[in-house]
Amino acid sequence: MPHHPIQPLARALRRGLFVSLLATVPMVPTLGYAEESAEAQRSYNIPAGNLDQALNRFASASGILLSVDASLTEGKRSAGLQGRYGVESGLERLLMGSGLMAMQSQGGWSLQAVSNGGPLQLGATQISGQQTQESAWGPVDGIVATRSASGSKTDSSLVEIPQTINVITAAEIKARGAQSVTQA
Predict the structure, then answer these.
(1) pLDDT reported for residue 33
(2) Do the Cβ atoms of 167 and 137 come closer than 8 Å?
(3) C-alpha span between 130 and 98 (Å, rounded)
(4) Model pLDDT for residues 61-118, shown as the tens digit of each residue
(5) How far apart are CA 40 and CA 87, in angstroms?
(6) CA distances from 128 to 125, 131, 140 (A)
(7) Which of 12, 26, 70, 158 is buried most deeply by CB count within 10 Å?
(8) What are phi and psi of 97, to 5 degrees?
(9) Is 149:136 a contact under the CB 8 Å cutoff?
(10) CB under 8 Å to 80, separation ≥6 — which residues?
């Protein structure tokens, strides 16, 4: 059977068309996802007020399960939410400035405190103690001296003198059992 010159051309064209169809198949789910995310956006009209009430309204309107520890939202306010948003962007907007963030978890959402590495507010600290009346020329209570007149010819704290100064106290000499200056 004689081959017609158009048959090989038709086969090549069919193969090219099949290959081009295979190449475009991965694009179809991407287009479907874009449509799906556009449908996931809903219109919200949540007024400003207590954060816990705003979150309840949002969860109800969006149809999500939102787990919240009441101590996290206590005393916090929200600016509200007006407009069209997806679940994640809507929660982010409601929680703005609250120090909280929403995390998607098993079948729903939960809140947790944001650790932003910012400044930490510490409570008041009370320090009490007694000032010792040690003098560079007087006796030292214990083994460690804190003042000397050797490096500066004045009564100065050892940490303020820019030289190494070793003070051997009477208590240390007695503790070592030294009988002479050489032994001390």
Answers:
(1) 41
(2) no
(3) 44
(4) 888 988 888 888 888 999 999 999 998 899 999 998 888 888 888 888 888 888 766 6
(5) 8
(6) 10, 10, 22
(7) 158
(8) 80, 5
(9) yes
(10) 46, 47, 48, 49, 54, 94
